[in-house]
Amino acid sequence: MMGPTGLHKLKDGGHLIVRSLQYQNYFGDGSFKIVVFRTDKSGRMLWYRLISEKGFRDITVGDMFLTSNNGDQEGLLFVENYAMKFATSSGEVILEKRYEDNLKGQVFTSVFYVSPQQIIAGTAQGNLLSINPGDLAVIWNQTNANRTGAIVAINVDSKKNIYYIFRDNKDRYTNIRIHKCNANGEFLKDFLFDGTLPNEYNWGYRMTSLLVDDQDNLYMFGRNSDYGFLRYFKFNTDGTVLKKNLKSDNLLAEKSFFNENGEIVVFGQIDGGGLNTYTGIYVFDKEMNIKSKLFYTNIPPHIVRGITGNPDGSYNIFLNYMQTYTYENSNFVFIQTDANGKI
Fold first, then answer.
1. 225-259, pLDDT tens digit by residue?
2. One domain for residues 187 and 284
3. N or C: which terminus of the chain carries fewer CB neighbours within 10 A?
4. Is 195 in contact with 202 (CB distance < 8 Å)?
């Protein structure tokens, strides 16, 4: 298995996972498949389903998204312009849909589950869609033709306003941008953030994660796109910055989530150059003070693909090893830690 990974934790502690699988081309339908599978809370695979690469551009590089619906009885997969609903008990396909007419050559770059009545999805050229999880029908589609760029990391506040990180095609490299829309996806305003820090080459930023707390404070995480340094911002619904990092830190932040204590867990790679790369997990309080840092330097060189948390404070870590001339291990690995983050 290789490439991008979609991960969704279920209420029973198990996970839905999607990846690309290099596969023997016995039947002339391509060398790769999309593989969707479910694990229990101990990481044991319960079932898997293979999807042909036919009809896709390149399943080894694009984003893949998973969520669940109907009390976790149904899983939902979004890849490129394709969606699939399936039974989480067996992987049986319930419904499939392609959105060629809606997306017109675009692909999904973000998916956010709002409720049993709504999923909000964003595309690589700025379309924002509302989709019904039941029949996968499009409820509305805002094209935002004058604001072309990729939508990533969608979230929603208590008033149902929609926020997302927007990678504007026309932006200068120093801009970090958030769009705010109303509940119907109509553009309201954008917020610009200054990501520059002293003693770094500030040639661009890759912001990847956006959270909203119960007070409608927003938390955005990412990194300097050319060098391995963390960026974060806490701001309110008017775009006023409440806190940002003022010094460099080596975490290449990928994703974030709230733990059982309401703290913010951020994870990604620590890149020391070459094969000296390993997983890092930081925990922040809501004032953006760092409570703890964990580094998994004892695992052979690897790439973290996803992390979820458990009620006792332990983590579920999903990773694959880096291949070298002297080390070959192509396994996709599940690791569960103790409550202190130790393996």
1. 777 789 999 999 999 999 999 888 889 999 999 99
2. no
3. C
4. yes
Average pLDDT for residues 159-165, to the nearest whole number? 97
Identify whether the C-beta of residue 233 lies closer than 8 Å to the C-beta of residue 193.
yes
Contact 192, 220 (CB under 8 A): no
- pLDDT value for 148: 80
Q: Establish how many alpha carbons lie within 13 A of residue 192's alpha carbon, considering only the half-sphere containing its beta carbon.
A: 8
- Give how many domains the chain has, as a whole number: 2
How far, rounded to the nearest angstrom, does the alpha carbon of residue 281 sit from its chain's CA centroid?
A: 16
Q: Which residues form the domain of 295?
A: 257-343
Contact 234, 241 (CB under 8 A): yes
Gap between the Cα atoms of 220 and 272, Å rounded: 24
Is 82 contained in some domain? Answer: no
Same domain, 136 and 277: no
Domain ends where: 191, 225, 249?
249
Beta pairing, strands 128-131 & 2-9 = unpaired
Give dist(CA 39, CA 155) in Å, integer. 27
Residue 45 has a pLDDT of 96
